[in-house]
Amino acid sequence: MSAARALPIALSCGEPAGIGPELAEACWAELGASLPFFWIGEPRHLPGTVPHVRIEHPSEAADVAARGLPVLTQEFPGPRVPGVPQPAQAASVVASIERGVQLCQSGEAAALCTLPISKQALAEGCGFAFPGHTEFLAHLGNVPEVVMMLACPQLKVVPATIHIALEDVPQALDAALLEARLRITHDAMAGFGIAHPRIAVAGLNPHAGEGGRMGRQEIEMIAPLLERLRTEGMELLGPLPADTMFHAAARARYDVAVCMYHDQALIPVKTLGFDEGVNVTLGLPFVRTSPDHGTAFDIAGKGLANPSSTLAALRMAAELSAGVARG
């Protein structure tokens, strides 16, 4: 008896005025039928550098992937204008994401990979009120808490706080929030084949507070929380000075790092693997990945888009979804 065919990955179109359509074609040119995925978007928006095949259902993707990019049509009200978002298209961008989630939840797609959106364009065009993809997907997945992980071959990082001003971080960062981030991160590492992860935890302040001389969050909140979670069997390192956490010898001591704010986490991962970084949303009832870059309006339509991060995101989506299926 032959093995069951793996489900394809759903790839939402992202912002048409950005490099999303170019990335979809470049990824199919690289992957072909070796990793079947289908793009949810408007066929007229594709640059036409490779053939595409319209499909009616995700189950067709694997059969047609050798002939062209499988496209599950999401109608848009107008043409693509590279570099210039069209407000009238915002609702269709959102609908592409919603459709990808629905297909994952119904078991018709293995995972969702999302191409970059413009939050400003969506807010102006259809009143999109979410800070970003991550929060919108949590809403669609009906889960109260999700975690954003950025991963490249050299490093996996989780920011405890994400899209807020730096001055707001100390007020937003409390023991309940940090504990939720740590628990979700710990449990999700099983999907990466790590049942007992070693988690490095950064301090909030320079030198992790230096014994209270540069801040007391480490003494009063972070260290006591880590000690309590260690009694449950979690392997936690820290709180550590963030400036010495990311060199090669330090990274060898842990599997994933939890940082206190956006740039503390994203600067090292983007420095180490800018073209290979993948955004993974932990805690959803389905697998979601995304390239770790934006819409790149400045190069849209010029044939300059680098598909490396999207390729990495598609491959990670396939690996993680296979782990979920085995589990």
TrEMBL record:
It is found in: Cytoplasm. Its cofactor is Zn(2+); Mg(2+); Co(2+). Binds 1 divalent metal cation per subunit. Can use ions such as Zn(2+), Mg(2+) or Co(2+). Pathway: Cofactor biosynthesis; pyridoxine 5'-phosphate biosynthesis; pyridoxine 5'-phosphate from D-erythrose 4-phosphate: step 4/5. Its main location: cytoplasm. Keywords: Cobalt, Cytoplasm, Magnesium, Metal-binding, NAD, NADP, Oxidoreductase, Pyridoxine biosynthesis, Zinc. One of its GO terms (molecular function) is zinc ion binding. Homodimer. HAMAP family: PdxA. Catalyzes the NAD(P)-dependent oxidation of 4-(phosphooxy)-L-threonine (HTP) into 2-amino-3-oxo-4-(phosphooxy)butyric acid which spontaneously decarboxylates to form 3-amino-2-oxopropyl phosphate (AHAP). This is 4-hydroxythreonine-4-phosphate dehydrogenase. It comes from Alloyangia pacifica. The lineage of its organism: Bacteria, Pseudomonadati, Pseudomonadota, Alphaproteobacteria, Rhodobacterales.
